[in-house]
Input
Amino acid sequence: MKRYSQTTGEVGESSDLSPWKTADALDLVYVGYGLLIVVLVLVSYVLGAFTWLPYDPEQIRVDLLNAPPGSAGHLLGTDFLGRDILSRLIVGIQAYFLPGLLAIVISLLLGTTLGALAGYRSGEVETLVTYFNNLVDSFPRLVLILLVIAAFKPGIYYIMVVVGVTGVPAVASLIAGKIEFLAQKNFIEAAHVLGLPSRVILLKHILWHHCMPLLVIQATIGMGEAILIETSLSYLGFGVQEPTPSWGNMVQAGANYFFQGKFWPSTAPALSILFTILGFHLLGDGLNGILEGSAGK
Amino acid sequence: MGAPLLEIENLRTYFHSRSKRAFIRAVDGVTMVIARGETLSVVGESGSGKSVTALSIMGLLDAGPGVISGKITFRTDGGERNLLHDLEHYVTLGEQDGRIMEVSKDEAGWRKQVERIMAEVRGKEIAMIFQNPKSALNPFVTVGHQITEAIRLHTPTKHPREAKERSLYWLERVKMDSPRLRFDNYPYGLSGGMCQRAMIAMALSSEPALLIADEPTTGLDATIQSTIVGLLAELKSELGIATLLISHDIRVVSRLADDVAVMYGGTVVEYGPAPEILGARFGLKHPYTAALLASRPSAQNVEEKGGLPAIEGEVPDPIDVPRGCRFYARCNRVTEDIRDACARHEPALKELTPGHHVRCWLYGD
Amino acid sequence: MVHSSSGPEIGAPPATGAREPGIFRGAAPAFPAGTVKLAATKPITLVLARELALAALLLVGVSFVVFVILYLSPGDPFSVLLEGQISNHAARAGLREALGVPRTWYVQYLSWLGNLLQGNFGTSIRTGLPVFGEIARVALSTLYLTLGSMLVTLLIAVPIALHSSVRGTTALNWLLTMLAYVVSALPVFWLGYVAVYVIIHQFGVFPLTARIAASSERTWPFSLLPIFVLGIGNGTVSEVVRHLREEMSRVMGEDYIRTARAKGASVWRHAFKEGLLIPMTEIIASKIPFILGGAVIVEQVFNWPGMGRMAWQAAQDRDFPVIMGIAMIAATLVRLGSLLQRVVYVAVNPRASNERRGAAWAE
Output
C-alpha cells in the first residue's frame, strides 16, 4: 500500500522542498551511518597520532593471552600475545588514513583536470584522454603495485600515489560525461551567451555546482578502495610490519590461531575493515540517492 | 450505431512530486466516448493530459499513483468489460475542499490486476502506435520479425512462414516500398516515415477493434506527415477501424477525425462532431478551442491580423491547478457577469447542440 | 511526460559515472528509400580487426609503462632483464658469442619489446628458469580460478539484479543487496580463512595439499572454495548487481519496451539483449582487473599455485622478470576480455558495425 499526500498551502513552480527533506529515509540512514564512521575514523586517527590510547599497542601480556572482549578492562579483548586489540585497531588507522587521503587527492585533481579537458575539448584531446584511461584500466591494481614494489620497494605513500593514479579514469570519465551532458543541454552555450566572463569562471560554475557532489561521492569510494588496498598489502606482508599494527597484518598474524578456533584476533580487524569500508560505501550511495532524488522530480 | 465501443467515464490519473509533495493532476476527470468505426481525436497542447489518457487506457503507466478513479467500458463482440475493473478496491482517496489531497493505492496489487485484464486486450483488441517511430521499434530486431511477432501472438496464424506472408501483405497495405527488402531491415536503416508505416502494419495486423495513435505524425518531416495522415485516412475507410487519435496538430485532426475532444489542463473542455468543433462558428465554442483555431498558421491569419495570434499566458501547471475554470487566466472572452463564477467554480460540461458539449460559463447556467 | 518515479533526468549520465554506451551514440544517417540493404552492414571481420588493432596499441602503451617503471628503479634491473632475455635467445639459437646489453633507453625498450613478442620474457632471478615457461605453468590455475569466480559472481548477482529491477524494491531484495554489500566489504582474506576453517573441521584436511590433490576425484570440491571466495569477495557482486540493475531499469524505460508491452509481447524477450546480455558482458569485462587482483590474495590464503602467488613471491624477492611478465600477461588478459565484450556487442547490435563512434577508443 503506497500512500501519497499533498501539503496544504501553496504548490507550484517554486515550492520545491530541499533534497534533504524529500530524501528516502533509507538514504538518510546510510548517510548517517557513513558520517558516523567518518567521525570515528577521524577521532581514532587523532587518538592514534597522539598515542592517547587505553593501552600500549605493542605491550605483550603473557598472563592475558586471547582474552575475550570485556575482560579486565580490555574493551575488545587481547590477541594471542596479550596485546590490547582496541588500541591496536586505533593505531591501525594510521596506516591507511593519510595515505588514503593522498590517493584521493591525486585521483580527484588529476581526474578532474583530465576529465575537464576531455569534456571541454572533444576530438583529439578526448581521444588521448580516453586512451590514457583505457591504458590505466588495463592493469590489475594489485599487480601494478606489486610491480612497483618489486622495482622500488617504496613506502606506503608512494604506493598510494600509484593507487591515486589508477583511480583517475573513473573520475575523469565521470567529469567528462557530466560536461558532455551539460553541453548537450546547452547550459554551457547559454552561459557563454549570457556573457559569463572567461572559461575559468565557467569551469568554477560547472565544477562547483554540478561536479562537487559527484566528486565527494568519488572521494568516499576512493577511501574505501584505499583501505582495501592498504589492508591487502599489509596482509601480504608489504606494508606496515609487525609489531606495528595494521588491520591487514593483524588479520594475517591471527591466521594460525583462527584455524585453531581462536577467531577473535583475526576477526576483530576484519570486522573493523568491514564496518569502515561499508561506512564509506554507504555514505557514497546515500549521497548519490539523495542527489538523484532531487534531480528527478 | 449501437452502444459505443469505448466509453471513458471520469478518468483520473495522478502522479506525485516528491520534492514538492504535491499531486500532478495529469488527467483530472475525463469523460469521452468512441463509437464503433469512428475516429475520435483528442486535441490539446503538450501537458494537457492527452497522452496520459491513452496510456491509462492501455495500463502502461508505471509511475505512482497512476490511475486512481474512473471506469473504462470496452464493448466488443466478446462482451462488455471494464478495463478498470475493481479499481475502487485498490484505491482510497481523501478529499479536502472538494479536491483530492490524499491517495492510498495498492500499486503492486493493481498492477497485477491490470495485467490480468489487459493481457487479452493489448495488441489484440486494442493496438497502439506511438510518436518517434524509430525509437519505438526494437533496434535489435528486424522490422519484419516485429510484425510477425504480433501476428503469431494475436492471430490464428502461428507458423512462421505463413506469418511472414501475412506481414508482407500488411507491409504492402501500408504502402511500404519494397516490402520484401524492408522486411529484413533493422529500424535504423529505415526512415521515420517507413518506421511509422511498419508500426501501423504491426498494429493493424492483428485486426484490433480499436487503434490508439499517440501523436503518430509528430517527429516526422512535414511532407512525410502528410503522407502518413493520408495513409491513415485510407486505412480508416478501407478497414472501418475505430481510432483514438491524439494530436496537437489541428491539420492532422481535421483530415481524420469524426469527433473531436479538446483537452485543457487535464480535463475535456469541449467535445463533439468534428465539423462543429473545427468549423468557423466561433460563437459556439469554448474560448480555448476558438483561440487554438485562430492561432493556426495560415496565410489568411497572417494577412488579416499581421501576425500569428498566440494565446496569452502559459500552459497550466498540472500541479498548481486553479480553483475555478482552468482556462480563466488566459481567457479573452470573460464577461463581468460570469467573472466571479469563472474564478471560483469549475463549470460542468453542458450540451450546446446535440452531441456538442462545452465546459464554459459563457454557455451554462 | 510520463517518467518512472526513480531515476535521474532523462539524458543525465548515472551519477556513479560510467558512460553509458547506448546504441544510439554516433547516430548513423537514415538510408534513403531504395538503398540496397547489403551496403549497410560492414563485415564483422573489419570491425573486429579494428578492435584488435586498438587492443594492440593499448598493450604497446602498457609495455611502455612497465618499461618506464623498471627502467627508473634503482639498481638497473632493466639490464638484468635484458641479460636474461639475451641468454635465453642465445641458448635457443645456439649462439656462443657474448652479446652486449644495449645502452640507450629506446634501443633497450625496443629490444626488450621485440623479445617479449617472441615469447622471450627473460629468466627468473630466483629460479634461473625462463619466465615465460614459469608463468605458463601456473597461468592455467589462475585462469581456472578467475573464470570460475566470474561464474559464481554472475550466478549470485544476476538473479538479485533481475528480481529487483522487475519487482522494484521489495524487502527481500533489499536484504539480499545489503548482504551482497556486506560480504563485499569483508576483506577477502578473512573470508578465505573462514572457508579454510570450514575445510579443516569438516574434512580434516588442510588445503595446502588440496590443489595438488585436486586432480583426484575425492578432493576436487576443494578447488570450489577459492573460486567461491573469489567470486563473492572483493566487492564484485555488489558492483555487478548495481550495474545490471541500473541498465535493466534504464532499458525498461525505453520506448521500444513500451511498444512491446502495448503489443502484448514478452517484455523479457525484448529487453534481454540490451538489458542483460550486453551489460553482463560489459561489467564482467571491466571487472577482470579486479578479479585478477583478488586472485593474488586468494591464492595466498589457499596456497594456490597460480600467477597471483607467483607475483607475490616475485615482489618479495624483487624478481623483476617474473613480475614484469605477470604484469604484461595480466594486462593482455584484461584487453582480451575487453575484446570479447566488444565482439558480443557487435554481434548483438545491428547498428554496431555501422556506428560512427564518437570517441574512437570509448569503451
